[in-house]
Design a protein that fits this description.
Layout (H helix, E strand, L loop, with lengths): L8 E7 L6 H16 L3 E8 L5 H11 L3 E6 L5 H11 L4 E4 L8 H10 L5 E12 L5 H18 L11 E4 H7 L10 H11 L4 E9 L9 H21 L1
Length: 242
């Protein structure tokens, strides 16, 4: 039996009750990256405790694009937990994760993949890019501004946009960082970037066009902002312990 060749690119898409948003995202990403990678592409959809018809929708997409495969968890793991598990089973030499809502469109995500030619890690930067469509509500913009300043001052992360749900890694970089990641919710990205920087991997920020998606958003500011804020103290404590 011929051993199946490992893909060149793995794209992870975490999905929690995304039956109404994920199908166009999968279609666009499969079409965009199949042109470059063909059969050397895999799109790993991590079903994260879904209670709707997300699985059926993803299976429908996979009938058209065989590069799509499913990893399912009956209990929700948190967004970061779902991404971590998807990256754990990914086989590509280049790894990326993006959101199911297609906030960062496939052509923009491809910029991150190309940036891995010269860097270990590439992170999408919405604030140096261009927002298209309706703008974020004023409260979300205020929270974002405060969060960015807090992260820069408290965790020492120099990046413009730590929380955008689109990032890419060379495989070796992710494998080195993965065992150190503790946070499994919205602070996952912070934990990743702190450890990437601590281990000395090169990081580039890539300006992207993006669209704020309101309908179906899983972010609840009253719940997620305090949790993420408290997570920064845990991350800093681990940093001090080495």
């Amino acid at each position: 039996m011929t051993e199946q060749k490992a893909p060149d690119l793995s794209i992870i898409i975490p999905a929690y009750n995304e039956e109404h948003r994920i199908l166009p995202t999968l279609g666009e990403y499969a079409a965009q990256f199949s042109r470059t990678y063909g059969d050397a592409l895999e799109i790993v959809v991590v079903l994260n405790g879904c209670r709707d018809n997300t699985r059926e929708v993803v299976e429908e997409a996979a009938r058209v694009a065989p590069q799509i495969r499913i990893v399912e968890f009956r209990q929700a793991l948190g967004k970061g937990g779902a991404i971590w598990e998807g990256l754990a089973v990914a086989r590509g030499s280049r790894l990326a994760f993006v959101d199911a809502d297609n906030m960062v469109r496939a052509p923009e995500a491809e910029k991150l993949i190309r940036a891995l030619d010269t860097h270990d890690v590439a992170i999408a930067d919405r604030f140096s890019g261009k927002e298209v469509g309706p703008r974020q509500p004023p409260l979300r913009r205020l929270i974002s501004t405060f969060s960015r300043r807090w992260v820069r001052l408290f965790l020492g992360l120099p990046y413009s946009d730590t929380q955008c749900g689109a990032k890419a890694f060379r495989r070796a970089a992710w494998r080195a960082v993965a065992p150190r990641i503790v946070e499994r919710d919205w602070a996952f990205d912070l934990d990743v970037l702190v450890n990437v920087r601590h281990l000395g991997f090169s990081v580039t920020e890539v300006p992207v066009r993006w669209q704020h998606i309101v309908e179906g958003s899983k972010v609840q500011a009253w719940r997620d902002v305090p949790k993420t804020f408290l997570s920064t103290f845990r991350i800093r404590s681990r940093m001090r312990k080495g």
